[in-house]
Fold this sequence. Notes:
Blueprint: E1 2-10, H1 16-34, E2 41-48, H2 57-62, E3 72-76, E4 87-95, E5 106-107, H3 116-122
Parallel strand pairs: 1-5, 2-3
Antiparallel strand pairs: 1-4, 2-4
Amino acid sequence: MIRGVRGATTVPEDKPELIYNETESLVKEIVRANAIKPEDIISVLISTTADITSGFPAKAVRSIEGWEFVPTMCTHEMSVPNALPLCIRVLLHVNTELHQKDVRHIYLNNAVSLRPDLVQEANK
């Protein structure tokens, strides 16, 4: 079965090293929480808010050991007034045996405000 696994995080400012570190941490936590192996990943879509321009988060994903050939793409999120700033969102398309209700979506840093219902579920 193919499932989408979501996650998001934020950075304190638009600096490449922060973008890379937070993206890598987020993806590693998504993978850990859902027992995903690189060979099970179909593709990764990453979006950032328009205030992130100093680096490509996909670079961080491709730098993870074993992920060199995982198809990864970056894009900008819609510009919506009062949206959470400096936010990186990730969507992994994966082959998994998990039922949709059992997939653990991961929200870190200020991004926990995006889906508090899922954050609470993940901590149970």
